[in-house]
Recover the amino acids of this structure.
């Protein structure tokens, strides 16, 4: 073997050693990345904007893979968790779905029924009433300017709100709804869970009252005891004099 052949063999061995060293370096980098990133798990992103209080469906979300250590503890990794749930706020497209974004959909109790009425958005809701809220329902009735005075009455106490609909423009030509036709141009459909008698009171007020308003009850204030004493449920201006 001449010197030229020996040099070729040495260069070949050096090339093989360099290749092994490079391969070992790549493996070390991969192991380091894997140790920092960890295993991947399934998560879900919102496909399109979801309105508040909308009942959730599996088609509203897209599946994605993410490193487990990058997910927060409340990230939802199984869509079975959204069954019977509604969005608690507006969910933006692309947002990662988390458990604090959703709540259980309110359900009717024994003896309750759903009833929905249109409430003046400006005077009755003001963005503070949401599903699960407890409210008192007030109605004002016009008098005849003679023997019958104008009155304001609490027709239902501690009513449970099931759903708050979308802001809806009112038809100015529609005179069927006395509670909103006077000055309001927009209203929100509010759904309540009520017993039969309270549902009748609300239906009557929507048909014959000048206005129907809601008063939000502080958390924990509602219960078996009426939130408004019977003697304070009707008000007239004459009674204040």
């Amino acid at each position: 073997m001449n010197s030229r052949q020996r040099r070729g063999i040495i260069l070949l061995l050096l090339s093989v050693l360099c290749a092994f060293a490079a391969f070992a370096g790549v493996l070390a980098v991969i192991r380091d990345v894997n140790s920092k990133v960890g295993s991947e798990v399934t998560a879900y992103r919102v496909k399109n904007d979801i309105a508040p209080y909308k009942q959730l469906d599996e088609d509203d979300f897209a599946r994605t893979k993410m490193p487990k250590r990058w997910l927060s503890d409340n990230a939802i990794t199984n869509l079975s968790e959204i069954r019977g749930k509604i969005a608690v706020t507006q969910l933006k497209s692309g947002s990662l779905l988390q458990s604090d974004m959703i709540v259980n959909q309110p359900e009717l109790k024994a003896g309750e029924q759903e009833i929905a009425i249109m409430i003046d958005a400006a005077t009755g809701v003001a963005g503070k009433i949401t599903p699960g809220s407890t409210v008192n329902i007030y109605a004002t009735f016009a008098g005849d300017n003679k023997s019958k005075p104008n009155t304001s009455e609490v027709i239902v106490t501690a009513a449970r709100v099931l759903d708050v609909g979308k802001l809806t423009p009112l038809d100015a030509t529609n005179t069927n709804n006395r509670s909103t036709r006077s000055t309001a141009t927009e209203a929100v459909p509010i759904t309540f869970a009520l017993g039969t008698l309270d549902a009748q009171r609300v239906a009557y007020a929507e048909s014959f009252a000048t206005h129907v308003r809601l008063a939000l009850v502080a958390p924990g204030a509602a219960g078996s005891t009426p939130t408004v004493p019977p003697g304070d449920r009707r008000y007239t201006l004459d009674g204040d004099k």
